[in-house]
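Reminder to self: keep the SMILES exactly as supplied, no canonicalising. Ligand is coenzyme A.
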Amino acid sequence: MPDPSLLIRDARLDDLDAIFEIEQRSFTDPYPRGLLKAFFYLPGVYIVAVSEGKVIGYAVGIVRYESLGHVVSIAVDESMRRKGVGERLMKETIERLCSKGTKRVRIEVRQSNIPAIVLYTKLGFTVEGKIKRYYADGESALLMYFNVK
Ligand SMILES: CC(C)(COP(=O)(O)OP(=O)(O)OC[C@H]1O[C@@H](n2cnc3c(N)ncnc32)[C@H](O)[C@@H]1OP(=O)(O)O)[C@@H](O)C(=O)NCCC(=O)NCCS
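C-alpha cells returned for the bound complex:
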C-alpha cells in the first residue's frame, strides 16, 4: 500500500549517515561514505524519501554533460520495499534531471537484479547494451536508457 506520509525532498549533508546505512544494507559492493558525500558537490539531483521523519530511501542522478543524465545510485531500505518508494524516487530523479536539460538518462544494473530491471522497464527504460564484468565480483551490467519524449 502507498505510504500517505511519504515525502521526497532534497538530500542534506545531515542525511548522510542514514543514506550510507541504506547503501551498506542494499549492496554487496556499497559506495564508500566519501563518495556518497562527494555526490552533493556534483551537478545533478540528490533526493531522499522520508517516512514518519525517517530517511528510507535515496537516489542520486548526475548531469554527465548537457543532455545526458546518469542515475548513479538508488536504494530503498529493505523493510520499506514494494510500497512504491523506488518508483517515486526514480520518477522524481528523471523529472528533476529533465528540468536541467537532460534528454537521456543512463543507468547500469546487475543483470541478476530483477527488481531493479523490472522497475526501470516499467518506467520506460530499455536495454541498449551490456558491460561485461562491470562489477568487482565479475558480474556483468545491463546498460539501460530512458529517452525523454
Ligand atoms: C530496486 C529498488 C530501488 C526498488 O524499490 P521499491 O521501493 O521496492 O520499488 P517499488 O515498490 O517502487 O516498485 C515499483 C515497481 O518495480 C517493480 N519491482 C520492484 N520490486 C520488485 C520485485 N522484487 N520483483 C519484481 N518487480 C519488482 C514492480 O514493477 C513494481 O511495481 P508494482 O509494485 O506495481 O508491481 C529496491 O528493490 C532496492 O533498493 N534494491 C536494492 C538496491 C538496488 O538494487 N538498487 C538498484 C541499483 S541499479
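Points to follow up:
The mean pLDDT is 96.
The chain has one domain: 7-147.
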